[in-house]
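FORM 7B: Structural annotation worksheet

SECTION A. Query
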Amino acid sequence: MASRRAQSRCWYVYLVRCRDGSLYTGATDDVPARVAKHNAGQGARYTRSRRPVTLVWQRRARDKSKALSLEAKLKQLTRAEKLGLISAASGGRGRQRAPSAGRTAE
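SECTION B. Predicted structure
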């Protein structure tokens, strides 16, 4: 049962802004808990010396595989492109929509 529940869990790709203004991209099944871990110094090595971090964008993925694929694509974007993603999302409800450039091929 636990594995079935884990498979049905939603996955997310997210961007956080670090204290120094840099952006970090990650994937998780629990965004609030992951951001809290980053801020507690228990997240990625990159964010440990750049705390606090602030969630600036997130997008739900169909499953873990799609989330990791989108994460890899986002990590290839330039800073300007990532800022464009954040800007586009904040114009609406924020942190939910992704422009077509960030979508994965199905």
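SECTION C. Observations
The chain has five helices and three strands. Residues 7-65+73-82 form one domain.

SECTION D. Sign-off
Analyst initials: ____
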